């Protein structure tokens, strides 16, 4: 049996295993090891299984992952989300859809301190959704806003997705983190324009709040958000100026979060231990999936599949934009069923050789990939952010209502992704300024 037959057959089996809800890490590793065994024999398969996981886990650049996750967990437990939302609510409540707009910007702020979409969604959902519903906001708008704004955690640095992508593609992680900053702000801005526009057209979606807020209250609320800019400056500033590598910036962020927690008297043993456990659980989950993806990459290379696909692309004379659009379609379809990190690591071994053939900028591609896994967090039937919101609201809001609210935000994503593809400098300008 030739390598290409084994390679394509393995991919079909992999998709069947995923359709049967086999955990993606197990599916990736099982198919890869079995494929290497068929192609090269038991010793090669056993040797790969023995060496590849260690080689992956020993990568220094990946130590940024647990650091960023620990920083986010500490930030959550010390009440950073509450102060961010409170300040945004007091300053923006007079706008059309003010609470939804406040939730959107507060989510962007917390995303810059956590790096996790699911954590941002869960934290902001507990605070903002009950308040929006209390003031008569449309349920679809309230829940859709939180689910969509939570995805900013994947794009605004620090981003776990960019760290994993950078390691996998051998691209500079610092440049990738900077590349996501402007697209993240652009996404938040487009969301805001949509919310305000809808609420102006239909005021019943978000009734005006008749609460008088003094200037002193607004200023006092601003004083409580000082940890956020400090964390952002510590992490993003140290990467941008070249003072620290992403791994060192992760350690700086985690240390700053602990110091801030101690200053705010929020750093006790319970919060510390819970933060450590949350970071360990999430890191373990990500690493298991990534190890499976590394094994798949090795197997596909042995099977000769990347070279075969690259020849097809060359013969078809596909341009960069056509290949990018094809990737977008694949991510939309698979994103309906797979978790974001798993989706990224499942597809990169196939797409990367094709990007190399056409000499496409992988920093730009990275932003598009992370943007597409954000979309996967919002699309049914397995839009994870929608399920996180459902867990927060319980029986108060049906899941169908949450997904209905997300349709408007998915329309915004089409606009943002189109702009990023049409104007690569949106992603590449900040990295080009780095020293």
Provide the helix percentage: over 70%
Radius of gyration: 22 Å
Number of domains: 2
Which structural class do the helices and strands define?
mainly alpha
Q: What is the general shape?
A: globular
Spatial separation of the terminal alpha carbons: 51 Å
Approximate strand percentage: under 5%
Q: Compute the number of strand runs.
A: 0
Catalogue the unreliable spans.
none
Mean pLDDT: 87
Give the helix tally: 22
Order of helices and strands: HHHHHHHHHHHHHHHHHHHHHH
Largest sheet at a glance?
A: none
Structure description:
The protein is mostly helical. It has 2 domains: 1-58 and 290-303; 59-267 and 304-433, no CATH class. The chain contains 22 helices and no strands. It has helices at residues 3-19, 24-40, 42-57, 64-77, 80-92, 98-114, 117-134, 139-149, 160-169, 173-179, 181-201, 215-223, 227-240, 246-263, 269-303, 305-316, 320-335, 340-358, 362-376, 384-393, 399-422, 425-433.
């Amino acid at each position: 049996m030739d390598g290409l037959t084994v390679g394509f057959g393995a991919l079909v089996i992999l998709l069947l295993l995923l359709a049967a809800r086999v955990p993606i890490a197990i599916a990736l590793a099982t198919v890869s090891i079995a494929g290497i065994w068929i192609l090269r024999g038991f010793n090669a398969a056993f040797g790969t299984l023995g060496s590849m996981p260690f080689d992956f886990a020993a990568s220094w650049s990946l130590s940024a992952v647990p650091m960023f996750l620990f920083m986010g967990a500490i930030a959550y437990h010390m009440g950073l989300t509450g102060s961010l939302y409170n300040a945004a609510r007091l300053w923006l409540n007079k706008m059309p859809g003010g609470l939804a707009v406040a939730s959107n910007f507060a989510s962007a702020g917390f995303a810059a301190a956590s790096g996790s979409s699911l954590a941002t969604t869960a934290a902001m959902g507990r605070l903002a959704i009950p308040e929006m519903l209390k003031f008569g906001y449309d349920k679809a708008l309230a829940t859709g806003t939180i689910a969509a704004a939570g995805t900013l955690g994947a794009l605004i640095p620090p981003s776990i997705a960019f760290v994993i992508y950078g390691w996998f593609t051998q691209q500079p992680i610092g440049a990738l983190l900077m590349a996501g900053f402007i697209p993240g702000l652009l996404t938040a801005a487009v969301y805001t324009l949509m919310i305000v526009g809808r609420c102006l057209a239909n005021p019943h979606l978000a009734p005006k709040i008749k609460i008088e807020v003094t200037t002193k209250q607004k200023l006092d609320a601003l004083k409580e958000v000082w940890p956020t800019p400090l964390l952002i400056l510590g992490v993003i500033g140290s990467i941008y100026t070249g003072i620290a590598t992403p791994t060192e910036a992760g350690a700086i962020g985690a240390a700053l979060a602990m110091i801030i927690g101690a200053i705010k008297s929020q750093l006790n043993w319970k919060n510390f231990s819970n933060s450590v456990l949350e970071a360990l659980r999430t890191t373990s989950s990500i690493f298991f999936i990534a190890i499976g993806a590394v094994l798949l990459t090795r197997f596909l290379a042995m099977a000769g599949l990347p070279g075969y696909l690259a020849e097809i692309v060359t013969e078809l004379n596909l341009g960069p934009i056509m290949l990018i659009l094809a990737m977008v379609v694949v991510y939309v379809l698979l994103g309906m069923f797979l978790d974001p990190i798993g989706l990224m690591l499942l597809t990169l071994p196939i797409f990367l050789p094709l990007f190399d053939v056409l000499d496409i900028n992988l920093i730009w591609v990275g932003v598009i990939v992370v943007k597409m896994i954000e979309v996967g967090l919002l699309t049914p039937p397995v839009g994870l952010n929608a399920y996180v919101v459902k867990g927060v609201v319980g029986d108060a809001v049906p899941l169908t209502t949450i997904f209905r609210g997300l349709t408007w935000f998915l329309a915004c994503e089409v606009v943002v992704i189109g702009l990023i593809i049409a104007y690569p400098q949106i992603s590449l300008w900040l990295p080009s300024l780095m020293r």
